Amino acid sequence: MPEEIDNVGNVSQSRYEQIVAELRRVVEQQTQGQFTIGDRALEIEPVRPRGGIADAEWTVRESMIRLAEDIGLTFNTVKNSRWIASRWPKERRQAGVSFTVHRILGQIENEEERFSAIKNPPAGKTRWSPDEAKRRVGWTVDNPETPQEKITAIHHLARDEEVAASVTTEFLKRPQVAAKVSPENKVRVVEEFTRDETVAANAATSLLRRPDIAFKAMSDDTARLQVNHAQVERSRQARDQFEDTSPVAPAVRHIDRTVEFLDLVTACHSFVAAAGRAVPGLRDRTLGEDERTIVHENVAKVRATLDWIETAVDTGKVDMDGELARLLKGE
Known about the structure:
Blueprint: H1 13-44, H2 60-71, H3 75-87, H4 99-105, H5 111-118, H6 130-137, H7 147-157, H8 161-172, H9 175-179, H10 183-193, H11 197-208, H12 211-218, H13 221-245, H14 249-253, H15 259-278, H16 289-315, H17 322-328
Helix pairs in contact: 1-3, 2-3, 4-6, 13-15
């Protein structure tokens, strides 16, 4: 006996078609049953226009709760069946269309449009499906097909903030996805992720260690002003820390100090502390040629400045020679 081909699941195509025909009859029976429930609920409580006179003995809700309990269904089932029946008078109900599709298309407010829609499935379709009906009324479909439907489905699933955060993290780990994000949206993403001050500080520190980025950032007047302000504030904090924590601070307090002396000691203290934090970060890291050149140039400036400091401290002469002046100006 030849083996069956074109199976659907565990059954042959012909058997599948028999099952579909049988279940369509079952769905039709269920549809008729649900409309019967809705019709009887309407008989008990007709849909009144807004502002209509309520019955003195029963409210609609109380009537529907009693009916639902007496026939063993939930209140919402009876309430929804009543509403759907009110949207589809008997002569407007479409044979072969499920109660579910009637319910969805019942959302169309205009009666003529609603009654016409149910008789006209989408182009290329022989019958309405729940997803096609949802597309017609603008609902989210269960089985998205177009890119926009898939985006909408993702938004719907990611309403929970923890889910959204996990999904975003996974997406951004995919280079091909990140590459398709526009520069404007990348900036917005970075801004959102760096609302936390700790995250922002870590990100800014890492980025400013890249010479090309640091150069571009300092081309912005506001950014440069903020950095200068931060340096002044950092110096003030370093001075306070020196006076509070340095073992030589008590001895220094007995010296007839000037503001210039304190500033100079604080500057040295800040440089040593900053270098102590930054240099260990170079472990197992090879800088590029441009990066090494920039560092060497700055080290030369530091050495020249230290010599200048020693000369000023020892002799009181603070004039710098022309070569040092040009070096510090970067010429």
